[in-house]
Amino acid sequence: PQRDAGTAAVAAVENVAARIEAEREHLTDLDSAIGDADHGGNMARGWQAAADAVSDLEDPDIETVVKTAGKTLLSEVGGASGPLYGGSLVFASAELEDGLTAESAVAFAETYLEKVQDRGDASVGDKTMVDALVPAVHTFKKSVETDDLHPLEALAKAVAAAEHGVSFTVPIRAAKGRASYLGWRSVGHQDPGATSTLYIMEELLATAADH
Ligand code: ADP
Ligand code: MG
Ligand code: MG
User: Fold this and answer.
1) Residue nearest to atom 4 of ligand 1 (CA)
2) Is the minimum distance from the CB of 128 to ligand 1 under 6 angstroms?
């Protein structure tokens, strides 16, 4: 089963790369409003490199795929989002060393969020990717552990929670990252990193549903 999860993980990275490329301009537009207009380019370049790197792996297990994608993002993407996405993927990939199960998926999600918050020091309400991640991870964990939902259903609920989190970033003022330099002028704009986090999660769900 571990090898199948590895194959699915490669497909997930490829699907994320394609989706981010399709959303490149939109992400750039969002970052032009409250940042420096590089989020679309940063993410598209990084995920394309990650897709290339993981497709070169021979018979990879899921931990190796996620770690390789993270390392590639770390080396290809600068700015705030490179270390946040890349470093957290590398760190959380260790939770998948025994393969993909509902339990290891929850552990992966929690460790990923923990690392993003360790590194970035952002909380809910700071108008960052954390606003999408926190509700998503909590919903995923609760759906698996308390509601005993199938992991796919749990992931679908997590995506819906992330979507709400993205909408929540619009009316609030940025307190972390570049957008915070704008102060109140950041109000009324959707956060680019929360948005890319949602797209990534949507592709994870689509890929998981397909495998
Ligand atoms: P940069 O701001 O360095 O140009 P990007 O444009 O690639 O980097 O990424 C910006 C996104 O990074 C923001 O929209 C936000 O979601 C996320 N971000 C910035 N700072 C933090 C932080 N301290 N914690 C969590 N996420 C952050
Ligand atoms: Mg930027
Ligand atoms: Mg930048």
Assistant:
1) 79
2) yes
Residue with CA nearest ligand 1 atom 19: 177
- Domains of the chain, with CATH numbers? 2-210 (1.25.40.340)
Distance in Å, CA 65 to ligand 2 centroid: 26
Q: What's the Cα-to-Cα distance from 32 to each of 23, 26, 167, rounded to whole Å?
A: 14, 10, 18
Give the rounded distance of the alpha carbon of 197 from its chain centre.
4
Q: If the chain, 211 residues long, is cut into consecutive pieces of 10 residues, what is the mean pLDDT of each piece?
A: 83 98 98 98 98 97 98 95 97 97 98 98 98 98 98 98 98 98 97 98 96 90
Q: Is 202 in the pocket of ligand 1 (CB under 6 A)?
A: no
In the DSSP assignment, the letter for residue 85 is I
